[in-house]
């Protein structure tokens, strides 16, 4: 099934914000949507920019890990925006905002619920279907947030590495249905993302994120600076940091790029 082509006018129409003109860049192929979105932010810092493509050749995840982008039907997009907070400690919350938005938009289409593996992976039917990477960009004294999202729509992981095969899945199986319109999806995603962004200080997305958080009450293993630990997930705090009870029954607060959870322990 051929994917409906990305279209600026359709995305804008489904975004449905008459007074806000999106800066949409839709390359046929790009090395990294995040890198291109950073350049768009430098050109148009006061606009809501989106870079979207179905072919990304050098996608990356947290800690510099590669992101598998060779799926038959994948959607890769990045949003660049000035954060709606003057507090730098709030900036990482845009990852949670983006994840919450994705879960809510997808749950309007799919009957089965979606889940979030802290901090940036989306699971559907027990498999990872999306990853999120947020990065800071600064230009002429102005800070911006770039949120990159990869969504596995449909296809096979037969040619992916073993790690991807063991964990990754798709939303639609191997074939993309004719009813799926990626322009409509992006427009709806951007609208909800923008609404959460505008009301950022309320942080309404936090409770939704925690409701979908995987592993609460589950004993898990994780690494901090490559040192292994074990604990039981309790939830998140107001900063979006993960709360884990250790063997001494004290609570450890986890945050930052040095934390890694293997996705395999969350596979159903």
TrEMBL record:
Organism from which the protein derives: Atopostipes suicloacalis DSM 15692
GO-annotated biological processes: protein lipoylation
Gene Ontology molecular function, alphabetical: biotin--[biotin carboxyl-carrier protein] ligase activity; transferase activity
Domain BPL/LPL catalytic residues, every copy: 14-201
Alphabetical list of InterPro entries matching this protein: aa-tRNA-synth_II/BPL/LPL, Biotin_CoA_COase_ligase, BPL_LPL_catalytic
SUPFAM superfamilies: Class II aaRS and biotin synthetases (SSF55681)
Any one of the GO CC terms: cytoplasm
UniProt name for this protein: BirA family transcriptional regulator, biotin operon repressor / biotin-[acetyl-CoA-carboxylase] ligase
Superkingdom of the source species: Bacteria
Annotated keywords: Ligase
């Amino acid at each position: 099934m051929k994917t409906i082509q990305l279209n600026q006018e359709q995305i804008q129409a489904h975004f449905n914000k008459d007074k806000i003109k999106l800066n949409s860049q839709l390359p046929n192929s790009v090395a990294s949507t995040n890198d291109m979105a950073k350049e768009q932010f430098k050109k148009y810092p006061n606009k809501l920019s989106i870079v979207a493509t179905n072919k990304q050749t050098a996608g990356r995840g947290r800690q510099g890990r590669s992101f598998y982008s060779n799926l038959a039907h994948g959607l890769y997009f990045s949003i660049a925006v000035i954060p709606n907070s003057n507090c730098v400690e709030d900036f990482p919350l845009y990852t949670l905002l983006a994840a919450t938005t994705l879960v809510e938009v997808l749950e309007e289409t799919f009957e089965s619920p979606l889940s979030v593996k802290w901090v940036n992976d989306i699971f559907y039917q027990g498999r990872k279907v999306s990853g999120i990477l947020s990065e800071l960009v600064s230009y002429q004294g102005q800070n911006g947030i770039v949120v990159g999202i990869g969504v596995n729509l449909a296809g096979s992981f037969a040619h992916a590495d073993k790690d991807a095969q063991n964990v990754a899945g798709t939303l639609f199986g191997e074939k993309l249905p004719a009813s799926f319109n990626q322009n409509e999806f992006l427009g709806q995603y951007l609208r909800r993302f923008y609404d959460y962004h505008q009301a950022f200080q309320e942080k309404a997305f936090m409770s939704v994120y925690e409701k979908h958080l995987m592993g609460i009450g589950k004993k898990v293993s994780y690494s901090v600076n490559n040192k292994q630990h074990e604990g039981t997930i309790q939830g998140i705090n107001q900063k979006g940091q993960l709360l884990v009870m250790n063997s001494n029954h004290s609570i450890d607060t986890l945050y930052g790029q040095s934390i890694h959870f293997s996705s395999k322990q969350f596979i159903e």
